[in-house]
Structures are given as C-alpha cells and as structure tokens.
Amino acid sequence: MKVAGIFLAAGRNNGAGASEDSLNRAGAGSAGAVMLSELETCGLVPLVVVVRADDPLGWLPPAGKAENMRRIETCLTAHLGLSFSLRCGLNAVASLQPDAVVIAAADQPFVAAAQIRRFIQAYEQHPELDYVTSAQEGLLMPPTLFSSTLFGGLQELDEEEGIAAIMRTKEYKGLILPQEPVQAFAETGLPESFGQYHREWSVRSGNRQ
C-alpha cells in the first residue's frame, strides 16, 4: 500500500510558524522544520513540500535519509488560498497513484510521527475508509489521511467550503482517533496564521451530518 504526503508550507510564514524566541525554547530551526522531520520518518513516498515561489527554503531541515522521498513543489498560486496549495500538492503526487495521502500544514499544532503512523496503520487495517483523522475537544484537527477515493473531491474544494466539507459528507466513511497530547510546543501557543488552516479544516464532530 502506497501512502504519499503533502506538507503545506506556503503560508505567509514560509513554514516557520513560530517566533524566534519560541523556536529557541523548542530547540528547533522552525516549527515547520520539526513537523517536516517528523513526517519524513513515516514512510510517506513521496513527501511533497508545497512552497511559495519566493520562499528561500532556509527553514528546511537537512534531508538525510529522506533525500529520495522529499520533493519541493513551488505553487505559483499559493497566495490565492489553501485550496490552491492543496491542488498543487495533489497534482504532484497523482502520477504515482498512491492509495492514500497524508495532508499536513506547517502552521498547525505540532503532531508527532507516532500519530501519523497510527493513521496509516488504521487505514491499512481498514482500506474501505475514506479518511482517518483525529479530534481534540470535539474538533477534527489536521493532519488527516485521505484515501485516493477523495482525491477528486479535494481537487474541487474552494476557499468557502474548506477541507471540513469532505468530512461533513454522509457518503464518506471516516475514522476519528483521539489526539495524543504533545508537549513540544505547549509553551509557544498557536501561530497567528494557523487560524486559516483551523477555519478550513476543523468542524465540530457534533455538527457532522
């Protein structure tokens, strides 16, 4: 089973996602770099990093063993919104015909690799699922694993619908796992730009139809 990854790092912070002081406390080059490094231990092939054309890429961590897995995709329309970055990522993985894709964003609360592996394991055990995600305090939260059955729907999303629209659709079957607590960035708070991803992605579980 092939699972690809899309790391949306085309936000205005270019993957940094946190202040210099908070990054020093966390002991990392940037929140985005730490999250990318975690994803690179999950066997996602390829792992497409979607960036803006003007991103100097100085925040990227050394590729190491992930050199053959990581692929940088410049999205010339990233400034138009999250859905445009997402389309760039999906187009980049489409030719490899993965069974599923894990979509994560640089500007989001930190999630450890163990959580992503749980998504992949759940999907491998239940390939009939359309998505696997996690919830915290009643909110569905990124990152999320989407089956290839949803690639077309994700391509057609617009800024008003957001990714949460997929998980509101009754015809799709999903699994929601509890989100494990992570302390790595507990003191930094949410980056300002996370609000965009939170609005696009989250939907209260009680509102699902």
In helices, the fraction of residues equals 25-40%
Count every beta strand, where a strand is a DSSP E run of 2 or more residues. 7
Unreliable stretches: 12-29, 182-209
What overall geometry do the principal axes of the alpha carbons give? globular
Biggest beta sheet attributes: 7 strands, mixed
SSE ordering: EHHEEHEHEEHHEH
Question: What gap, in angstroms, lies between the N and C termini?
Answer: 30 Å
General description of the model:
There is one protein chain. The chain has 209 residues and is α/β, with parallel strands linked by helices. It is 29% helix and 20% strand. The protein has helices spanning 20-26, 31-39, 82-94, 113-125, 151-155, 164-168, 194-201; strands at 3-8, 47-51, 70-74, 100-105, 131-136, 139-147, 174-178. The model is unreliable at 12-29 and 182-209 (pLDDT under 50).
